[in-house]
User: Fold this.
Amino acid sequence: MPIYTKDKLNQDILNKVVEYTISSVSDIKKKEIEYINKIEYVYDYHINKLNFDFKQSISALKDYYPKTYDYLILNDLYYQLIMYWYQLIDNRLFLSSFFELNQRIYFLTNPSEDYYDWLPDYLKDGWLKAFGGIVLSYSENDINGTMLIGDPYSRWKSFDLYLPNSRKKAKQAIESLIKKIPYTFIDIEIEDIEKQEKYRTKGFPNLRVMIDCRKPNEDPQEYDLILMCYHYDHRVFWVKDGDFIDGLYEITHPQAMLDEYFLHVFTQKDQEYTRFDFSPWASKL
Assistant:
């Protein structure tokens, strides 16, 4: 589906899908203010973002992603909020934090800072400290957003959601992964496939999708995923063309790769989309 853009947002406002957008707390209207005051803590993160100077708030990027940082500060960016009412079940107010760049709407995901401690510095003290997570979406909210790194706790999906629908092919992919990445499912080295699958029932696997590089809500035959061992090891992997068996590579310098990838995404405009070449940092497994 098309990436959500400024033009689509304006159309949604005209069609009353979105009530309005704001860049200052003083712009919130009476109806929304009264609702927010009843359950204020739910909206604190989004509302507080409006008080942040964008350039100052992304200073954490400078030491880890200098190319991305230099590009972003050249632009006149500021945080905004989308206000809309969800009326399918009950009349509930939703806020979506975002900034606009090159016609695209970049949504900020709610951060879960208590869950970042074990992640590498270039994530917890860089990207996540600056943003808490960002995704591109196809609608007025960040649900099912892709292409960038969202909040690790709530947005990094289990890798097995991307395996072939065929049980036989999925099992073959898992067997191949475990041979190459012993910590696929758990944080101790158990290579036996049956034991690994048994431990899978106890919770999320260790190997998770950090970046789904596809356009939002699209499922092309060939695509790229960036995976990370979440709790243990923190190795980063590239799944090329959606092939978990023959297209698996380890990323040797993930911080440098991410700087180039972020810049690649941020410099694209409107519906422009080209796949990024991860091969300069990739070693085939």
